[in-house]
Design goal:
Low-confidence stretches: none
CATH superfamily of the largest domain: Periplasmic binding protein-like II
Mean pLDDT: 90
CATH architecture of the largest domain: 3-Layer(aba) Sandwich
Helix content: 40-55%
Largest sheet: 6 strands, mixed
Strand content: 15-25%
CATH class of the largest domain: Alpha Beta
Number of strands: 13
Radius of gyration: 23 Å
Length: 307
């Protein structure tokens, strides 16, 4: 019996199946199933059985799940005690956060509070990022996790969608459509868009290139890399750009107007991590974020859970 097998047992029990457990652990299903079988053979008991609800632990399985939690918790506390006794610095949790408090809308604050509570005594560092560099600190290993707004196309990164919410169109208050009511996506595709300083696959979504089938950029302003930069640029042109609705609530500006547009795909808040990062710290951060989002989703108007 080893710690890896104990983590596998917990994941299968909590996820209700081998396939979702493998996804949670970022491993393939066959080696996970084999590890469970080897553990059953070693103990001489059956740990899981299938029924109409999926895969559930047997009585012996539940006993092991409970003991496994205790063992892993004891190992964590022992590790911290030994490190503290040796004068080793406290655990550091480093998170890249796109656009600061705007990244998850009204859920950002309760998510950060949940992280402070879960990692009490740890040093939590927040690294604010912009459109162009929202995952660079993560890819370089400078942070453990990144709070992002997909799409993220880097093959060395994995993203877990947490919530989604509607997008809207933002224009300057001098724009001809500034006082318009609800619009359709087709009505806004003829509008020139702000040039975003961002990866092309990311910018094309917010600039509506995916719906238009190509770009239509306003050339009177330079590329912008932040929400405040976009708001400022809109006051100087008749361009437009899309934003998540929570951004317009949390970063209000009298210089711009927010318009509802039917037919826009939602904006997703997600957690990104390096595929090679299999540390329990990373898994714990993701679990805390998902749990906090579930508990506080009512704070995000029109928001939907994706976990």
């Amino acid at each position: 019996m080893d710690l890896r097998q104990l983590r596998y047992v917990i994941a299968v029990a909590e996820e209700g199946g081998f396939r979702p457990a493998a996804r949670r652990l970022y491993t393939a299903q066959p080696p996970l199933s084999m590890a469970i079988r080897q553990l059953e053979n070693e103990l001489g008991v059956k740990l899981f059985e299938r029924n109409t609800r999926g895969v559930i632990p047997t009585q012996a399985g539940w006993e092991l799940v409970n003991r496994a939690h205790e063992i892993l918790e004891l190992i964590d506390t022992t590790r911290e005690a030994v490190r503290e006794g040796a004068g080793v610095r406290r655990t550091a949790v480093k998170i890249a956060v796109l656009s600061g408090e705007l990244v998850a809308g009204e859920l950002t604050a309760p998510i950060l509070e949940a992280l402070r509570s879960r990692f009490e005594g740890a040093e939590i560092f927040l690294h604010e990022t912009t459109f162009i560099d929202q995952v660079e600190a993560l890819r370089s290993g400078d942070v453990d996790i990144a709070f992002v707004r997909p799409p993220i196309s880097h093959s060395d990164l994995a993203t877990l969608p947490i919530t989604q919410e509607p997008r809207c169109l933002i224009v300057g208050r001098q724009h001809p459509l500034a006082e318009a009511g609800r619009l359709s996506a087709d009505e806004v595709l003829r509008l020139p868009m702000l040039d975003l300083s961002a990866p092309p696959e990311w910018a094309r979504i917010w600039q509506l290139d995916d719906l238009r089938g190509g770009s239509l950029l306003d050339e009177s302003t330079g590329p912008v890399r932040s929400v405040s930069g976009a708001q400022l640029a809109l006051t100087m042109s008749n361009a437009a750009i899309t934003m998540s609705k929570s951004t317009t609530r949390l970063s209000p500006s009298t210089a711009v107007r927010s318009l509802n547009v039917e037919g826009l795909s939602p904006s997703v808040f997600a957690v990104a991590h390096r595929r090679s990062d299999t540390r329990r710290l990373t898994r714990d951060i993701i679990d805390v974020v998902a749990a906090a989002a579930k508990e506080h989703i009512h704070l995000l108007p029109e928001g939907e859970l994706l976990v």
